[in-house]
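Before surveying the methods themselves, it helps to consider a single example record, giving the amino acid sequence and backbone structure tokens:
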Amino acid sequence: MSGDREPIRTRLQELRRRLHTAPECAHHETGTADLVADELARRRPTRVVRGLGGTGVAATWESAAPGPTVLLRAELDALPLEERSAVPHRSTRPGAHHACGHDGHMAVLVGVAERLAAAPPARGRAVLLFQPAEETGEGAARVLADPAFARLAPDWAFAIHNLPGFPAGRVLVREGCFAAGSAGLVVRLHGRTSHAAHPELGRSPAAATARLALDLEGLSRPEDPTGPVALCTVIHVRVGGPAFGTTPGDAEVMATVRSDDAGTLSALRTRCEELARAHASSSALELQLEWREVFPPTVNHTDAVARVTAAARTVGLDVDIVSRPFRWSEDFGHVTGRCRGALVGLGAGKDHPPLHAPDYDFPDALLDSGVALCHALLVDLLGPDSQRAA
């Protein structure tokens, strides 16, 4: 690309901080989508598609020469958290915070768009996707189900995610499962209230709730270096309300199950339901079950990981092979289930505040590494020197 890249780096930093200042949570990313679409339109794409899966935005740069479609993904949404930091660009919206670095991921892809504007693909098509609702596990599935996405269906797909706790700019790869799948369970138990002086006249869910919470926690097993992770974490328990004269009639238990193996995750979900039904039945309680925020395991393809490794080394980035899947979840697994693809970690610094922390802020120094890696992937698959792109 011609010209000095320092002004581009400055523009990306300014954009990233602007996005950080005005975060929007899942399904409400309208202002973020508008800003991203405007930025993309100025980079001379072949076309911009709006409204994918709700608020999603995609831009394409297309060549007349045949070749694969390569998709790079960033996320639009912020977390429903209060930011507690002293940075001048901190969130101005109460209860919303880009505490996972999605603002930085978006800025990286805008930087890639800048390079595509200067040098479009020599073959095939590049697609930059800005996906909604990643944090709730719904966005990727909704984008894939959108009829408009059928025209963008990729042959290859990649996404980066910054990872505090690792050296800044270090590329983290793994064949097979990269990030665990997870699902959120909501159990509602309904009995019958009575006066607290006569609990025998009601049906309190208190004892069943306590037993259920303990049994759900008991589904977790110690980490086995040779086997899949199996975790069940109780995140919320409520019984009745603050009424000292009333025996409770309703209760709610919420838990998150997770595993890096799809079969294990399915078995955990089944066992959770069995326990809930057993405890409800033993206490003559009505039962409601609901699953929310379901993420499949994100499984990386061997060929895609090889491409990432080669691209990283081309631009001088160190590569580490991760020995175990990460326990957190990412809905990019829906995408890698459709085509050759990989989710890639990008170290954000060993001492950087962790993801989802109240003082987290994406490190701007990482923008250059992210742009370089993502653009190198496109050059490898769509550039003039690649003969292996099909």
User: Anything to note?
Assistant: DSSP finds nine helices and 16 strands in the chain.
